[in-house]
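[INFO] parsing input record for Pilus assembly protein PilZ
[DEBUG] input buffer:
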Amino acid sequence: MSNLFEEEAGPQPPREIRSSIEILALLKGLQQHREPLKISFDDRHQAFQSFIVQLDSDRLWIDELIPQEGNRYMSQQEAFQVDAWRDGVHIRWYCPSARQVMLDDAPAFETSLPLELTYHQKRGAFRAAVARGLNTKLGLVHSQRSYEANGQLIDISATGCKIRLAGAWHERLQPGEVFDLSYLELPDSGRMPVSVEIRHCHYDANQDETQVGIKFKQASPNIQRQIDRFVNQLQREARRFEKNDLF
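[DEBUG] output buffer:
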């Protein structure tokens, strides 16, 4: 018998990301939030720090290293590993070399966009399944987009949810994008404003629907209580169902 709910206990196994669109979205998130990069050279014991200063579809530029000794290793085109952390997610990739360039009249290092990176997320919240008959909705609204996407919840936890959207939305919803004017509707709670981040998308051509993983971004205390109350209710109902199913 499959569970109607499960505990998202971390850490989850690392996942290899090879989609160029998803890789670019993750790196953009590091750039926009000015997340520090840990640079480690092969056969060198010292670690260095840098930041992503620019991106395009196939290249990235990082700032000069701290301490400055690392710039010498970069100029020698030594191979290195990059480690970064954002919202509890460890992102790691490998670079065979980089070259020193001038970017907007400032020195920087240019390298190719990684062909793959490792994505390792720790999770620590219950995820409860949501029945189709329940009156739930998540509206994806972006302050700089003209469209709105309305989906029904598949599951929900205190930190995020998964929704289904009718039709093909996987090319319009990119991982890492934040839909800042979204709203969540739960039974007996009405419409609640939420800011959400797209974590992943999958289009099922047979069902003609897109499943989207969502993370809630800094929900207000009142809205977080409403979410927690709904999750707890679903957990109690699932436990009651499983208990009755044993007899």
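[INFO] DSSP finds three helices and 18 strands in the chain.
[INFO] shutting down worker
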